[in-house]
């Protein structure tokens, strides 16, 4: 599919699913991932994936709160502003989110670290796409049939570690602005990263994303595609995926074609 032109308003549709990893099932754990997607009347769309740290007591809640908080902030912004928020505003929102987590942690006689969660988000308007990223989730976009990694997963200093919204003294927040040339996007937690990314070449696997997006591209209607989302959940929970990763798996597939 051809890339979109700047200023072009499209009708977005998406399939999305989040399933618990087999390792969490075996340990009587719970799903630590969360996500949210929202289409705006101005032709824009917002999507976010957050992965709660398995070692954090309230990691699942931290992930949910991260997605909920940013969804509300972006909805409020686009309702009264024609342009994308500047980087300073976005950074302020993350600081506000951290303050909220800290207050909740205090009420629960806990610490912000027990709410640790990653962040991978994108907001798209007819003229621009902006990504916000902390940790090892990722965002990819399709431009002129080619897939580009817009947010590459970042790991910490030690094996099997990463960065979180709650890190002290400041989170490792990356904000990147992209020209409006992509017609599809995928956001996913690290449980899907081994399936969709080449870590050797630091690139996205077209052989993974092309067939995954094709049903979304050709689907009729707008908004969340309920039937395709159910099929996506079945796929992510299937043996062919779980044999490759025992982690939670969240995947959002967005098409504007």
TrEMBL record:
<dbReference type="InterPro" id="IPR001932">
    <property type="entry name" value="PPM-type_phosphatase-like_dom"/>
</dbReference>
<dbReference type="InterPro" id="IPR036457">
    <property type="entry name" value="PPM-type-like_dom_sf"/>
</dbReference>
<dbReference type="Pfam" id="PF13672">
    <property type="entry name" value="PP2C_2"/>
</dbReference>
<feature type="domain" description="PPM-type phosphatase">
    <location>
        <begin position="20"/>
        <end position="235"/>
    </location>
</feature>
<protein>
    <recommendedName>
        <fullName>PPM-type phosphatase domain-containing protein</fullName>
    </recommendedName>
</protein>
């Amino acid at each position: 599919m051809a890339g979109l032109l700047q200023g072009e308003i499209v009708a977005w549709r998406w399939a999305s699913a989040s399933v618990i990893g087999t390792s969490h099932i075996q340990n009587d754990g719970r799903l630590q991932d969360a996500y949210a997607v929202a289409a705006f009347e101005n032709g824009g769309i917002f999507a976010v994936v957050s992965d709660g740290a398995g070692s954090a007591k309230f990691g699942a809640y931290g992930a949910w709160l991260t997605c909920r908080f940013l969804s509300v902030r972006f909805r409020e912004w686009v309702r009264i502003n024609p342009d994308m928020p500047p980087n300073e505003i976005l950074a302020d929102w993350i600081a506000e989110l951290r303050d909220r987590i800290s207050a909740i942690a205090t009420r629960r006689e806990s610490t912000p670290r027990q709410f640790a969660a990653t962040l991978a988000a994108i907001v798209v308007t007819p003229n621009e796409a902006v990504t916000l990223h902390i940790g090892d989730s990722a965002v990819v976009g399709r431009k002129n049939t080619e897939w580009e990694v817009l947010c590459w997963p970042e790991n910490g200093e030690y094996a099997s570690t990463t960065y979180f919204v709650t890190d002290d003294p400041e989170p490792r927040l990356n904000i990147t602005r992209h020209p409006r040339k992509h017609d599809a996007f995928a956001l996913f937690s690290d449980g899907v990263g081994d399936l969709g990314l080449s870590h050797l070449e630091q690139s996205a696997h077209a052989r993974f994303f092309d067939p995954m997006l094709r049903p979304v591209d050709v689907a009729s209607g707008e908004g969340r595609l309920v039937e395709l989302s159910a099929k996506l959940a079945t796929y992510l929970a299937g043996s062919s995926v779980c044999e490759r990763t025992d982690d939670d798996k969240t995947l959002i597939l967005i098409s504007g074609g």
